[in-house]
Amino acid sequence: MILEIKNLNKAFGGLKAVNDVNMEIEKGSIHAVIGPNGAGKTTFFNCITSINPSNSGEVLWKGEDIAKLSTHIISTRGISRTFQNIRLFSYMSVLDNVLVGTHNLTKSFIVDAFLHSKRFKTEEKDMRDFGLELLKKVGLEEKAGEYARNLPYGEQRKLEIARAMGSKPEILLLDEPAAGMNSQETAELVNFIRQLKNEGFTVLLIEHDMKLVMSLADKISVLDHGSKIAEGVASEIQCNERVIEAYLGKRRYE
Amino acid sequence: MIAEIKKFAEKNKLVVTIAVAALLLLIPLILGSPYLLRVAIMICIFVILSSSLNLIIGFTGMFSLAHAAFYGIGAYCSALLSIKVGLPFLITLPLAGILAGLIGAIIGLATLRLRETFLVFGTLAFGEIVRIVIMNWTSLTRGPMGIPGIPFPKIFGFEISNYTHYYYMVLFFAVIVVLLIRRLYNSRVGRAFIALREDETGAASMGVNVFAYKVWAFALGCFFAGIAGALYAHFVRYISADQFGVNESFAILTMVALGGTGSIIGPIVGAVILMVFPELFRFLAEYRMVLYGLILIVIMMFKPEGIAGFKGMFPRDFDMMSIFKRKKSKTEVEEA
User: Fold this and answer.
1) Do B183 and A113 lie within an 8 Å CB cutoff?
2) Per-domain boundaries in chain A
3) What is the ipTM of this complex?
4) CB 3.0 to 4.6 Å from B111: which of A155, B87, B122, B224, for a disulfide?
């Protein structure tokens, strides 16, 4: 178990956005979190990464409780994420976006930059190569010099993944990676996520595209109104009464 | 037009560099009169000030109306150390920067958790506090009487007492500061600063310690302002609190806004224009602040990114100013 969530709670005023959620994410697996709009999926991610720190509960990363750590420290532990409402650095180049992702792999500081020290030069070169390699992986190496804001939507999503991989994480939290992608791009994305799994990454993803989820996920957790209502492999979820109810509503006549 | 100039400069990099360097070096010969040379020296000092403020506003997307206060701290530090302790200029200059940077870091620790509008007021208040403290701490600063008789800088036994020599020295420091900031811009730290400006949450998720980097950017900007202060104090040789008030902060801010936020060349352009302009129109001298106000409003409305910048001075959620802005698509330019 690489990531274990125990009794996680998060409330915004009276609204329980995440309500006593337990989840176990197996190392090297693709774990999907689905649920209707407003089910608390993104808040769940924000709790794990401390962007909206949880009210109570534990987030155990390899046995260590990281629930109270701040966002930038969690990133150094090997947890990296993308955002549903893309949060790229729009007035930075595509490559620079990925380089910000590598922030914690390097150490050079202000004086190194001023003097162009040896450490600065080697780090800068290594990270540039690494960044370009990542861009190649997602197919953006030719756009390395463009402003991130000038990329089409689908490519911005790819760039977010590349940027998240910049910190050499062990787990990737992908928040609706296929949103706004056309069917061909989605197919590429599916292959890409499979490839990530083969390379040993653990992937936790939120997605609305059921076809994508059912074909990719080793395990699926379903959230509704902040609570986990079901968990299992694709076939179990598809015929689960409560899941169908959450998505389609209750049958009026029995 | 700016884009074309930039393109041309990039194509003929070497030629342009040599031409600019030659021009800068020959300025004392071209200008001739000490009065004009004085203006050139002040331009260099203000290039340091606007470039360092740009580090805070343009790179990191914070805001400061206290920049002149740190300029003043540097000036007073260097002046007092050389008069009362008798330290040489080459030691008081870095000490002035370090003191300003340290106080900047402390102020940063206190105020940088504030957001946008509140940060503006926080720094505005600090600027006033510094001025009033200088005004009233008579035992140290002589209060309203100011500090006269600041010695000329001596470097390796060579006294820099005439305008031409002083110009070369200030030019040297201005070039160094601009180059250092440029190097920072293309480094891990600089990228972290810019990432903060673009999206704090995104930057934090990539492992950037948001608060620490904000404090670093602020302190570094203040450090350079302190250096500028020391260069100023030993040039005019008489300093008093009213030279470092909020008006001066607004002047520096206007230079950054006019020249262009977030670019290296922008603050230089702004400093040159706003230092030359009042000299050309002496009769407007009393209306200087009115002019700065007008420039700020016009820039805000029609070209928030400034002449050579590429992003509006005020962050996206800076509501107070957004009322002046037209539709975003019109004001955001495509190319730097």
Assistant:
1) yes
2) 1-78+169-254, 88-166
3) 0.90
4) B122
